């Protein structure tokens, strides 16, 4: 690490330390964060403690101190995450504006049944049902950078409603069962309260299928581009954005558009080997669903339909509240920004130990994630400073190596 990076890291640690407001917590945070930023293969508490000690005789004491800091210490995750987010966003927005907010979730594979929130459940990161925890995240992105701001652990009802398991994992009394969209809305509200610069909110159909989720996002002042499932029904909209005809599923609408030759190939960016492209159609529609809104008050939105090469029918459907004059190419490029989060998760887990936490308690999971979010924020800020816009897509590991 060069002298400039060292000064910036010390300054950043000082900002976090001011929130922690305790000399011992400051020291433990620094030890744990440097452990996550290091080149060590395993980034759980015990290996971090071992690498931090010049003398093996002191490893046990450092391990106990880290365990107390992560598992039991009563410091505010939100306050620490706010400092981290401000640090990264300040660096990112010196070059580019925030363009999107991304809601997604990822799995943390586990053995056994005692880690808080673990059960057999589907995780997109593994592409299957597995024994795992699931975390819901909120990230923000510019056209070239992407940083996670917040995470919530999804607690299945088998945990949230089981007094014995709650006691074992020390789940606070005020934590109740919430769906993933409800957890996502909690994080979005916090980001709005913290004056995070607005962007278009992106999410898959696990969130977009909820009309309540979409309505709350709009009430909070954000545009969205969110996935919906094929059976979702809509009315076609005329040039005045008024509904016409009978409700039709988005799948059937896509099939009808195909008969009329309405799909066109759109390229959204250059891949590592070839252009990334697919066939798309876009139409103005009015969503049709049961909610508290009168039909006449419902907002017309864009429906973007993707029909990839070789598929027998359309596979992806997106509602977007962007301006009626938005071009199809812009719609596609915005929607496809969501998939960058998959790479962020890979880097976050592979380079910064996001999924290395071995504790079983609720507070410990969130504290570990908070320190990891700080590390990612620092890496992103360093990468923005070191690389031009043309080269900033380099692997997070490059920046980690320089920061560590």
* Structural domain tally: 2
Q: Which consecutive residue ranges, at least 5 long each, have pLDDT under 50? A: 391-404
Structural class, from secondary structure content? alpha+beta
Helix fraction bin: 40-55%
Order of helices and strands: HHHHHEEEEHHHEHHEEEHEEEEHHHH
What is the molecular shape? Answer: globular
Round the Cα radius of gyration to an integer and report it. 23 Å
Secondary structure blueprint with pairings:
Blueprint lengths: L2 H18 L2 H15 L7 H8 L6 H14 L4 H16 L7 E10 L9 E5 L4 E14 L4 E8 L3 H4 L2 H7 L10 H14 L6 E4 L1 H4 L2 H9 L4 E5 L4 E5 L5 E7 H10 L4 E7 L4 E14 L12 E7 L8 E5 L7 H8 L4 H13 L9 H25 L9 H8 L1
Parallel strand pairs: 1-5, 5-6
Antiparallel strand pairs: 1-3, 2-3, 3-4, 6-12, 7-8, 7-10, 9-10, 10-11, 11-12
Task: Describe the protein's architecture and organization.
The chain has helices at 3-20, 23-37, 45-52, 59-72, 77-92, 157-160, 163-169, 180-193, 205-208, 211-219, 250-259, 328-335, 340-352, 362-386, 396-403, and strands spanning 100-109, 119-123, 128-141, 146-153, 200-203, 224-228, 233-237, 243-249, 264-270, 275-288, 301-307, 316-320. With 404 residues, it is an alpha+beta fold. The protein has 2 domains: 3-205 and 341-403, no CATH class; 224-321, no CATH class. Strands 1, 2, 3, 4, 5, 6, 7, 8, 9, 10, 11 and 12 form a 12-stranded mixed beta sheet that branches. The longest helix is centred in the last third of the chain and has 25 residues, at 362-386. It is globular, with a radius of gyration of 23 Å. It starts with a helix and ends with a helix. Residues 391-404 have low confidence and may be disordered.
């Amino acid at each position: 690490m060069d002298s400039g990076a060292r000064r910036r890291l010390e300054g950043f640690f000082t900002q976090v330390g001011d929130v922690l407001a305790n000399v011992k917590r400051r020291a433990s945070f620094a030890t744990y964060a440097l452990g996550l930023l290091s080149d060590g293969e395993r980034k759980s508490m015990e290996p971090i403690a071992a690498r931090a000690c010049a003398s093996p005789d002191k490893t046990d004491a450092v391990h106990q101190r880290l365990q107390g800091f992560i598992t039991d210490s009563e410091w505010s995750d939100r306050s620490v995450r706010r400092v981290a987010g401000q640090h990264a966003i300040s660096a990112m927005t010196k070059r580019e504006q925030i363009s999107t907010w991304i809601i997604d979730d990822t799995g943390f594979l586990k053995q056994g049944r005692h880690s808080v929130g673990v059960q057999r459940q589907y995780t997109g990161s593994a592409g299957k049902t597995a024994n795992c925890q699931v975390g819901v995240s909120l990230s923000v992105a510019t056209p070239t950078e992407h940083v996670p701001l917040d995470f919530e652990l999804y607690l299945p009802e088998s945990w949230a409603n089981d007094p014995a398991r709650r006691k074992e994992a020390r789940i606070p009394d005020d934590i109740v069962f919430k769906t993933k969209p409800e957890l996502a809305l909690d994080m979005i509200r916090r980001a709005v309260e913290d004056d995070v610069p607005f962007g278009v909110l992106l999410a898959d159909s696990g969130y977009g299928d909820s009309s309540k989720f979409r309505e709350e996002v709009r009430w909070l002042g954000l545009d969205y581009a969110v996935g919906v499932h094929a059976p979702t029904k809509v009315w076609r909209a005329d040039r005045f954005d008024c509904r016409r005809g009978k409700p039709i599923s988005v799948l059937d609408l896509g099939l009808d558009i195909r008969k009329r030759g309405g799909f066109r190939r759109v390229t959204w960016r250059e891949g590592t080997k070839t252009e990334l492209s697919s066939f798309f159609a876009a139409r103005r529609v009015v969503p049709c669903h049961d909610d508290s809104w009168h039909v006449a008050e419902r907002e017309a939105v864009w429906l973007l339909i993707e029909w990839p090469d070789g598929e027998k029918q359309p596979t992806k459907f997106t509602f977007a509240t962007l301006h009626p004059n938005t071009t199809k190419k812009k719609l596609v490029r915005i929607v496809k920004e969501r998939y960058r989060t998959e790479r962020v998760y890979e880097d976050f887990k592979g380079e910064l130990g996001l999924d290395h936490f071995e504790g079983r308690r609720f507070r410990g999971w969130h504290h570990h994630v908070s320190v990891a979010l700080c590390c990612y924020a620092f890496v992103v800020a360093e990468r923005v400073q070191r690389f031009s816009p043309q080269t900033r897509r380099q692997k997070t590991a490059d920046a980690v190596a320089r920061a560590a």
